[in-house]
Design brief:
- The chain has 301 residues and is α/β, with parallel strands linked by helices.
- It folds into 2 domains: 4-175, 3-Layer(aba) Sandwich (Rossmann fold), CATH 3.40.50.720; 179-300, N-(1-d-carboxylethyl)-l-norvaline Dehydrogenase, domain 2 (Orthogonal Bundle).
- It contains 12 helices and 13 strands.
- The chain has helices at residues 13-22, 30-39, 76-80, 102-109, 154-160, 177-198, 202-207, 209-228, 235-244, 252-258, 265-279, 284-300; strands at 4-9, 25-27, 41-45, 48-52, 56-57, 64-69, 92-95, 116-117, 119-123, 127-131, 134-137, 143-148, 169-173.
- A 6-stranded parallel beta sheet has the order 5-2-1-6-7-8. A 4-stranded mixed beta sheet has the order 4-3-11-10. It has a 3-stranded mixed beta sheet with strand order 9-12-13, with helices on both faces.
- Strand 10 (127-131) and strand 11 (134-137) form a beta hairpin.
- Helix 6 crosses helix 11 (265-279), helix 6 packs across helix 12 and helix 11 (265-279) packs antiparallel against helix 12.
- The radius of gyration is 19 Å and the shape is globular.
- The protein starts with a strand and ends with a helix.
């Protein structure tokens, strides 16, 4: 059986965007697979709209060189059950999930011969799926995927990620997988909790003095936890990234809560809080933001 260059597990906003741009083999739920098989996968980006018709399966059994995992954190365990171990023997697995704890779970569940699991992060992009088979990318310009792995050499990772180097996606291979995770997790922990707790977009929060103080204090905490975990982040530099975000940008956590869906709040902000407890770094401001977010989420439910 021939090896497929790339497959994408999870056809939501990020997974659907990656699959549409790379024409990857799609691995999804029965509903998503039926739609892709019947109508194709549509990507809306600005004024442009395109439809591709990739192969779609509910369970990955054919060998792949690269498996991109792009499901929500709360759906990860179930989704990994749809991957046959023989399909990822000798493959690189690249999760593009938010948070800090999923990489080790994937290593444990997909422990196949000669498999390399990388830490991955995707930035410069806001994408969501309003319905199965449809992805809307709101941000202009190319998304940026950053990856690193302790399992294999950079040359192997560079080669395996080749199918992702297409129009609309930039790829960078780094040297430290913990740094890849923390660079996004520190600020996203703050933004996911704050946008859910407030029901407001990022621009409104950073422009309002009370929220601005809370965000900056929580960001300092998250960066302190990262430092204790061996990753040095500059809080001022992280805040500058937040300042550069579009005014009306929100997080998938807030969007999911507003739609009555489960959220990744625990996987993102909760992971930073748990890391702080493990490393002896207090995070009272971030914990208070999480408590407010949980309260608002419970009211919405």
């Amino acid at each position: 059986m021939s090896t497929t260059p790339v497959a994408v597990l999870g056809l939501g906003g990020i997974g659907g965007m990656v699959a549409a741009r790379t024409r990857a083999l799609c691995v999804g739920t029965e509903r998503s697979v039926d739609v892709v098989r019947g109508r194709g996968l549509k990507l809306k980006h600005g004024d442009e709209s395109s439809v591709v018709r990739p192969e779609a399966v509910e369970r990955l059994e054919q060998p792949v060189s690269l498996l991109v995992v792009a499901v929500k954190a709360y759906a990860l365990e179930e989704a990994l059950g749809r991957i046959a171990l023989e399909a990822v023997e000798g493959a690189v697995i690249l999760p593009l999930l938010n948070g800090l704890e999923h990489v080790e779970l994937i290593r444990e569940r997909l422990d196949a011969r000669d498999t390399v699991v990388a830490a991955g992060s995707i930035g410069r992009v806001e994408a969501y799926s309003p319905e199965p088979g449809v992805v809307v990318q709101r941000t202009v310009g190319a998304a940026l995927i950053t990856a690193a792995s302790r399992d294999g050499g950079r040359a192997r990772l560079e080669a395996a990620l080749g199918p992702l180097r297409v129009s609309g996606i930039d790829v960078v291979v780094a040297g430290d997988e913990r740094a890849v995770l923390w660079e996004k997790a520190a600020r996203l922990a703050v933004l996911s909790a704050a946008t859910l707790a407030s029901g407001r977009p990022v621009g409104t929060l950073r422009d309002e003095s009370t929220w601005r103080v809370r965000l900056r204090a929580a960001l300092e905490e998250a960066c302190s936890v990262a430092a204790a975990d061996g990753v040095q982040l500059d809080p001022a530099g992280q805040w500058a990234i937040i300042e550069s975000l579009p005014h009306d940008l929100t997080t998938s956590t807030a969007r999911d809560a507003a739609a009555g869906r489960p959220t990744e709040l625990d996987a993102i902000a909760g992971a930073v809080v748990r890391a702080g407890r493990r490393l002896g770094i207090p995070t009272p401001v971030l914990e208070a933001l999480m408590a407010d977010a949980w309260a608002r989420s419970s009211q919405a439910a």
